[in-house]
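Q: How would the structure tokens look for this protein?
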Amino acid sequence: MTNPPYLQKANTPLFVDRHYPKAAELLQEWDGDKVEGLALIGVPLSKPSISHSGACFTPGVIRKLLQSYSTYAIEDSADLLKTNKIVDIGDISMHTTDVKESYRRIEETVSTLMGTSPACLPLFIGGDHSITYSTLKGMVEKKGKIGVIQFDAHHDLRNTEDGGPTNGTPFRRLLEAGVLKGEHLVQIGIRNYSNSAFYHNYAKENGVTIYTMSDVKKLGISTVIEQAVQELSSKVDHLYISIDIDVLDQAFAPGCPAIGPGGMTSDQLLEAIFLLGKEKTICALDIVEIDPTIDFRDMTSRVALFCLLEFIRGRGKV
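A: Here is the predicted structure in token form.
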């Protein structure tokens, strides 16, 4: 049988240049065996978001955007294809209506994966920030003492009595569950008019280290990262990076449900993630709070994708 000419597989790039490898080539389909190194895992949960959010669609958008960029970092002549591959584990299946069941599924999936593949370094693509409670809980069961470096405009330490477990409560829940100690949490990019005095005082009373946007501007992002790593390294075995995209100024993140002025530039965030990528003790990373349904030309998702690429570039320096 003669097949029709000029057909190509769906979701493949429209144009191919043999001398221009696409970032999508970094992804390898998971064969079900033990995973060594980087693993992409979609966590498409956004029902618990305080504000309306289509963050559940982000994993698919990030995968699609990998076709838009190369693997070559011109600044240090680094080709990511030569240093790292990413195993695409797929997306965690969420329950249609039961949020707590979805949390349980996330935790069980992560715990099982880390049990069978202890050398795996997950790259979680949310989803809203509520997923971090379950991803970190699943990591701690297998990894032991973990410290968190959180990029965020908000403390995410809200109480659960007024609305249950939402994207504003993950770190409160982690502290109350004893999964995370306050002294093992560093928050970077916290800014004006995005928090209340009550929750700011709660953070300080629980020993959370806080770098406001004013601190970031005064010290510089490289100094903040150096101090954050130094602060945690003597207390924990591993570091977990949590990136809430609303840490960015609204000019850089139009597809974030909780946009606001006065945040980081994309340059600052990308430098921070590259520097953290070079840290040997990093055990996982998550990126959350992107809503592709309100984004403009995927601007916000593109920043998230660059965070992944810069983290991978940093891993090549380890």
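The chain has a mean pLDDT of 95.

The CA atoms of residues 26 and 81 lie 6 Å apart.

Upvote if useful.
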